[in-house]
Amino acid sequence: MQKVTSADGTTIAYERLGSGQPVILTGGALCDRGALRPLAEQLAPDFTAITYDRRGRGDSGNGTPYSVQREVDDIAALLDAVGGTAAVYGHSSGAGLAAIAASTGLPFSKVVLHEPPYGPDDVDSSEDGGRVLELIEQGHNREAVELFLMMTGLPKPDALATAALPGVAELAPTLAYDFAVMAHGTNGGGTPVELLATVKPETLVLAGTASAPFMVDAAHRIVSILPTARYADLPDQHHVVPPELLAPVIKDFLSR
Hints:
Blueprint: E1 2-5, E2 11-17, E3 22-26, H1 37-43, E4 48-52, H2 68-81, E5 86-91, H3 93-103, E6 108-114, H4 126-137, H5 141-151, H6 156-163, H7 175-183, H8 193-196, E7 202-208, H9 213-225, E8 229-234, H10 243-255
Parallel strand pairs: 3-4, 3-5, 5-6, 6-7, 7-8
Antiparallel strand pairs: 1-2, 2-4
Helix pairs in contact: 1-10, 2-3, 3-7, 4-5, 5-6
């Protein structure tokens, strides 16, 4: 494990595997750097794969008050640590964060957005999100995680099982950060059209054909907005894709 210091003084923990062109892997809700380590291991023979703990998770600090810009600053600090430029892969809300970071002009060589969960523009999910935050404030972390996972389309039995896994409920307070990321640049939700339109690096947008329909729809909307994006299906895959199936798709895009 290595550490960098972000602009506000917060320590961000990261690991690097492999050698070659660097790619920063940005995880989604309820994930620390360990969640993307299997993908990093698949990429490592050809790339320097960087996994990190987003602030408030794992071995990273949690400077306050929280802001989305501070999470962008964390990625900027990682870029400096790996030589000033890198590709970036983001999964779920991590894809939302990667898109925000790219829109600010950070020097990404390429961008991979894997199912950022932008909701339909005509649906307001703030009520459910507000309930998740209420449960966290009341100390009901496990229940908050269960509700959040069901919001994403996970069947209730799977949501209950995931929330019961060791360490997952402890990450519940960082769900507030994920909500802030996904609402950034929007008017109460939906797709941040103006933000996405400013993303300049070549971008690959991924979605599993077996994922929740709103995530597949969001992926197609993103491609229609981004000036340099293309779309790729992950056949028969859900929101979480086995790394041995995902890595070749990422490698192919980054190697071109």
